[in-house]
Design brief:
elongated; 0% strand; mainly alpha; single chain
Length: 182
Protein backbone atom coordinates (compact mmCIF):
# COMPACT_ATOMS: atom_id res chain seq x y z
CA UNK A 1 0.00 0.00 0.00
CA UNK A 2 1.43 3.38 -0.95
CA UNK A 3 0.58 6.72 0.55
CA UNK A 4 -0.07 9.61 -1.78
CA UNK A 5 2.25 12.61 -1.71
CA UNK A 6 -0.42 14.90 -0.26
CA UNK A 7 -1.31 12.36 2.41
CA UNK A 8 2.34 12.04 3.51
CA UNK A 9 2.60 15.82 3.89
CA UNK A 10 -0.68 16.01 5.85
CA UNK A 11 0.38 13.15 8.11
CA UNK A 12 3.77 14.80 8.68
CA UNK A 13 2.04 18.09 9.53
CA UNK A 14 -0.33 16.32 11.94
CA UNK A 15 2.55 14.58 13.71
CA UNK A 16 4.57 17.80 13.94
CA UNK A 17 1.56 19.67 15.29
CA UNK A 18 1.04 16.97 17.88
CA UNK A 19 4.69 17.06 18.96
CA UNK A 20 4.61 20.85 19.14
CA UNK A 21 1.48 20.87 21.33
CA UNK A 22 2.94 18.28 23.68
CA UNK A 23 6.26 20.13 24.02
CA UNK A 24 4.94 23.69 24.12
CA UNK A 25 4.48 23.75 27.91
CA UNK A 26 7.49 21.76 29.03
CA UNK A 27 10.13 22.31 26.33
CA UNK A 28 9.15 25.25 24.08
CA UNK A 29 12.73 25.54 22.81
CA UNK A 30 12.57 21.95 21.51
CA UNK A 31 9.21 22.57 19.88
CA UNK A 32 10.47 25.64 18.05
CA UNK A 33 13.68 23.93 16.92
CA UNK A 34 11.76 20.91 15.64
CA UNK A 35 9.36 23.10 13.68
CA UNK A 36 12.21 25.09 12.10
CA UNK A 37 14.13 21.93 11.19
CA UNK A 38 11.02 20.29 9.75
CA UNK A 39 10.29 23.31 7.57
CA UNK A 40 13.78 23.02 6.02
CA UNK A 41 13.34 19.42 4.88
CA UNK A 42 12.71 18.88 1.20
CA UNK A 43 10.93 15.65 0.41
CA UNK A 44 7.71 14.42 1.96
CA UNK A 45 9.44 11.20 2.98
CA UNK A 46 12.05 13.18 4.94
CA UNK A 47 9.32 15.33 6.54
CA UNK A 48 7.31 12.26 7.53
CA UNK A 49 10.36 10.56 8.99
CA UNK A 50 11.37 13.72 10.87
CA UNK A 51 7.88 14.40 12.23
CA UNK A 52 7.51 10.78 13.38
CA UNK A 53 10.74 11.14 15.33
CA UNK A 54 9.55 14.44 16.80
CA UNK A 55 6.27 12.90 17.94
CA UNK A 56 8.21 10.01 19.50
CA UNK A 57 10.60 12.44 21.21
CA UNK A 58 7.68 14.38 22.69
CA UNK A 59 6.84 11.29 24.74
CA UNK A 60 10.42 10.76 25.86
CA UNK A 61 10.86 14.01 27.80
CA UNK A 62 11.27 13.78 31.58
CA UNK A 63 7.83 15.32 32.21
CA UNK A 64 5.98 13.40 29.47
CA UNK A 65 3.83 11.39 31.86
CA UNK A 66 3.60 13.78 34.81
CA UNK A 67 -0.12 14.24 34.32
CA UNK A 68 -0.69 10.49 34.35
CA UNK A 69 1.37 9.41 37.36
CA UNK A 70 -0.84 10.87 40.11
CA UNK A 71 -4.20 9.50 38.85
CA UNK A 72 -2.65 6.05 38.43
CA UNK A 73 -1.08 6.24 41.91
CA UNK A 74 -4.37 7.42 43.45
CA UNK A 75 -6.32 4.57 41.84
CA UNK A 76 -3.65 2.09 42.93
CA UNK A 77 -3.76 3.50 46.48
CA UNK A 78 -7.55 3.20 46.67
CA UNK A 79 -7.36 -0.35 45.26
CA UNK A 80 -4.64 -1.32 47.73
CA UNK A 81 -6.59 0.15 50.63
CA UNK A 82 -9.78 -1.60 49.45
CA UNK A 83 -8.01 -4.95 49.21
CA UNK A 84 -6.49 -4.47 52.66
CA UNK A 85 -9.82 -3.44 54.17
CA UNK A 86 -11.57 -6.45 52.63
CA UNK A 87 -8.99 -8.81 54.13
CA UNK A 88 -8.55 -7.26 57.60
CA UNK A 89 -10.72 -5.72 60.26
CA UNK A 90 -10.38 -2.08 61.31
CA UNK A 91 -7.51 -1.48 63.69
CA UNK A 92 -4.00 -0.08 63.99
CA UNK A 93 -2.95 -1.95 60.85
CA UNK A 94 -5.63 -0.09 58.91
CA UNK A 95 -4.36 3.26 60.24
CA UNK A 96 -0.78 2.29 59.32
CA UNK A 97 -1.74 1.36 55.75
CA UNK A 98 -3.79 4.57 55.36
CA UNK A 99 -0.87 6.65 56.63
CA UNK A 100 1.65 4.91 54.37
CA UNK A 101 -0.50 5.43 51.27
CA UNK A 102 -1.32 9.01 52.33
CA UNK A 103 2.31 10.00 52.80
CA UNK A 104 3.27 8.52 49.43
CA UNK A 105 0.43 10.35 47.63
CA UNK A 106 1.29 13.58 49.44
CA UNK A 107 4.92 13.24 48.37
CA UNK A 108 3.90 12.54 44.80
CA UNK A 109 1.43 15.40 44.40
CA UNK A 110 1.59 17.93 47.26
CA UNK A 111 -1.12 20.17 45.80
CA UNK A 112 -3.74 17.41 45.93
CA UNK A 113 -3.28 16.30 49.54
CA UNK A 114 -6.93 16.80 50.57
CA UNK A 115 -8.24 14.91 47.54
CA UNK A 116 -5.84 12.07 48.32
CA UNK A 117 -6.85 12.04 51.98
CA UNK A 118 -10.55 11.99 51.23
CA UNK A 119 -10.19 9.17 48.71
CA UNK A 120 -7.96 6.98 50.89
CA UNK A 121 -9.69 7.78 54.19
CA UNK A 122 -13.19 7.07 52.87
CA UNK A 123 -12.28 3.57 51.64
CA UNK A 124 -12.97 1.89 54.98
CA UNK A 125 -16.48 3.34 55.18
CA UNK A 126 -17.06 2.60 51.50
CA UNK A 127 -16.02 -1.05 51.81
CA UNK A 128 -18.19 -1.46 54.92
CA UNK A 129 -21.07 0.25 53.08
CA UNK A 130 -20.61 -2.14 50.17
CA UNK A 131 -20.82 -5.05 52.62
CA UNK A 132 -24.02 -3.64 54.13
CA UNK A 133 -25.76 -2.96 50.82
CA UNK A 134 -24.80 -6.17 49.01
CA UNK A 135 -24.65 -8.57 51.99
CA UNK A 136 -21.31 -9.77 50.63
CA UNK A 137 -18.67 -9.78 53.29
CA UNK A 138 -15.30 -11.30 54.09
CA UNK A 139 -15.18 -14.51 56.11
CA UNK A 140 -13.96 -12.74 59.26
CA UNK A 141 -17.16 -10.62 59.42
CA UNK A 142 -19.69 -12.45 61.58
CA UNK A 143 -22.40 -9.80 61.81
CA UNK A 144 -24.22 -7.53 59.43
CA UNK A 145 -23.47 -3.81 59.48
CA UNK A 146 -25.87 -0.92 59.42
CA UNK A 147 -25.25 2.17 57.33
CA UNK A 148 -24.94 4.18 60.54
CA UNK A 149 -22.21 1.77 61.70
CA UNK A 150 -20.46 2.16 58.33
CA UNK A 151 -20.60 5.96 58.43
CA UNK A 152 -18.61 6.07 61.69
CA UNK A 153 -15.62 4.68 59.81
CA UNK A 154 -15.22 7.99 58.00
CA UNK A 155 -13.13 8.75 61.09
CA UNK A 156 -10.26 7.23 59.08
CA UNK A 157 -10.26 10.35 56.93
CA UNK A 158 -8.52 12.21 59.81
CA UNK A 159 -5.29 10.14 59.81
CA UNK A 160 -5.35 10.18 56.02
CA UNK A 161 -5.46 14.00 56.05
CA UNK A 162 -2.56 14.17 58.50
CA UNK A 163 -0.52 11.67 56.46
CA UNK A 164 -1.18 13.45 53.17
CA UNK A 165 -0.26 16.83 54.67
CA UNK A 166 2.98 15.38 56.07
CA UNK A 167 3.74 13.86 52.67
CA UNK A 168 2.92 17.09 50.83
CA UNK A 169 5.20 19.14 53.10
CA UNK A 170 7.98 16.62 52.56
CA UNK A 171 7.30 16.72 48.81
CA UNK A 172 7.49 20.52 48.76
CA UNK A 173 10.74 20.46 50.73
CA UNK A 174 12.25 17.93 48.35
CA UNK A 175 11.22 20.02 45.34
CA UNK A 176 12.35 23.37 46.73
CA UNK A 177 15.33 24.99 44.99
CA UNK A 178 17.29 25.19 48.25
CA UNK A 179 17.24 21.40 48.59
CA UNK A 180 18.67 20.85 45.10
CA UNK A 181 22.43 20.25 44.82
CA UNK A 182 24.41 23.11 43.31
Amino acid sequence: MTISIGAKRRLADLLMGHAQRRLRGQRPDWAEAMMREGAELGSDDERLSWSSGCAYASYRTPAAFDGLVYPVALIAGVALMSAYQWSADEGLGTVAVICMIGVMLGLLEPRRNLLSAAAIGAVVAAVNGFETLTHLRPAYEIRLHTLLHDAKWTVFIAPAVVACIVGSHAGRLLRSPSSQPS
